[in-house]
Here is the input.
Amino acid sequence: MASSPRTVVHRDLASMPHVVIIGGGFAGIGTAKGLSDQDVRVTIIDQHNFHTFQPLLYQVATAGLEPADVAYPIRTIFGAARNVRFRHGRVRAIDHPRGLVILDDGAEITFDHLVVATGAIAAFFAVPGAEQFALPLYTLADARRLRNRLLSTLERADVAADRERVGVTFVVVGGGPTGVETSGALSELIKIVIRRDGLRLDTAKVRIVLVDVAPRLLTQFPDAASDYARKHLESMGVEVDVGRSVVEIDATSIRFSDGERLEVEAVIWAAGVSAGDALPTGLGATPGAAGRAQVSPDLRLAGSTNMWAVGDAAAIPQSDGSFAPMLAPVAIQSGRHCATQILHVVHGEATTPFRYHNKGIMATIGRNAAVAKLPYGRVITGRLGWLAWLGLHLWYLIGFRNKLRVLINWTWRYFDWKSGPRLIVADAETDES
Here is the structure.
């Protein structure tokens, strides 16, 4: 049951309790929005001055969208909020006894309440060479680096066509939504550069291999949805190889548990995430599933009265004994709930437990193809699922400018396909290493 609107009595900002939020992702922004124009001071700290819409990063990586289409300045989001400010910086440590957040530049920021919304980073599962040579897809920099690698590889293959038709192999590790979406988009990218850009690639020698240790794709979905995704990807030319594990990656190849070594131009890592390495030092949190910080039902860190964790950073208990999944809807909902609980504490009221409202999960496979698992188990596929996926992502995308740009880009590509920022804008030291 939604709580009634709280009457806000604006006081001098300096006298208000100070809430520091570490992280400008879905959870951090959701928390700050819930505290906007309330009787608290809010400081958002992030090493980037923009919010990234992570579900569309794969389209940046495969030249479907521009980086600016999926990023929005945090200061602009809260430009009209008198009590919210942004601090650009990286958190070095937390000094809980003194109520301090310590930044890399030596600055110290005091807090009355601390919200950890640091998200997660790629988990490489101790696979030798994976962290060094594989290309993850969890930040805007990751997407830009991957796009440059993919386009540079295709350009080099075109140049080599003057002498011979060379083979090009890309391997995507991870059969979840990110891996499925990236594989489908990469297949479409290759078709576009051949048909529209005139690259001389021999499609028979271009391989996209999607590999996962699980026995099927999209394990969060019912079997029928997994089968649909696999069949559609294979119809697009993607080789789906499930039930197979990766044991080593180097600069030019990938090796599997059965001993096969495959020469590759790029390994795209979408095998999973971990929150542990993203958490700030000194937090003193009890580690939970996937390295996430254990929290009580109201989202406070276990054993703490004024430190909270939300989104992917938190192992949020559910009524059935499991933990809330690491999904954007969980991050958004937990951020909003955390804001409400902080206001309860500030006003001397009791907190309430977080309840995740499952609105379903989705994954797009390609043009006119997607799978969507709705609440209560119903699954829709094909064009209807694809349209639902488009509408949902546009709805949650922050910023009217971004919504409009993405809508125009998608519409243009649907009817024409020539558009797309297929530009190599690379720093040789940072993007092509």
Notes: The chain has two domains: 13-47+89-120+275-346, 130-273+360-415. The two ends are 52 Å apart (CA to CA). The mean pLDDT is 90. The CA atoms of residues 148 and 425 lie 7 Å apart.
